Amino acid sequence: MFLTHRTPQLPTPEEALRGRPTPEFTVPSRHTVLGNPLTGPYPQGLEVADFALGCFWGAERKFWQTEGVWTTLVGYQGGYTENPSYDETCSGLTGHTEAVRVVFDPAVVSYADLLKLFWESHNPTQGFRQGNDVGTQYRSALYTHSPVQAEAAEASREAYQQVLTGAGLGTITTEILPAQGRTFWPAEGYHQQYLDKNPDGYCGIGGTGATLESPSETNWGRACPTGIAPAPTVSE
Q1: CB distance 47 to 229 below 8 Å
Q2: Which class of enzymes does this protein belong to (predicted)?
Q3: Rounded to whole angstroms, how far apart are CA atoms 70 and 28?
Q4: 97 touches 141 (CB < 8 A)
Q5: Structural contact between residues 126 and 174, judged by C-beta atoms closer than 8 angstroms
């Protein structure tokens, strides 16, 4: 998670590491802060959302501190390599970005609320980097689990772009793509809830200082009603 001088570039599917059919490690059963299962199956009525906003250590903490979030786990998403390791992902040869899967109760916190937290917690204009962290694994992304999520994500991006433009900041580079076909691969156990285990550990998460209007008071927020999508198991 440190600055390098190599120009990041996503691999093609042919260039990507092949990976393996089964993981090389096991994932802890429960969240160290929330106490709930990490990988499901999850209780009926919960929903899932996937966010990538830089180093997943600090990003995960942002979400587990949010009321209504039932569990979180970190992993690798958006690339080609099956069951990747952290070192492989950091090589830039898997195509994955560091992501956080958030399982939440929509009766307490909406997807739109989580989108607001996402945008304000990092700088989405930096391409293959986040602050001093450089690499394709640090790119900003939203992987959506339904057409309604996709609509809300796109609407929130447009709304936040207006805020950033008004503040004299750059163009959002966040990719918004369906989660279907982009498997979320859980990261190694030591990465899960890392900043709970290491309170003084590295956290590269930091926003632009530009805030997005409250979802309940805006058109983009109303594009995201409750009842988006049931939470899948981790292998989806």
Answers
A1: yes
A2: oxidoreductase
A3: 16
A4: yes
A5: no
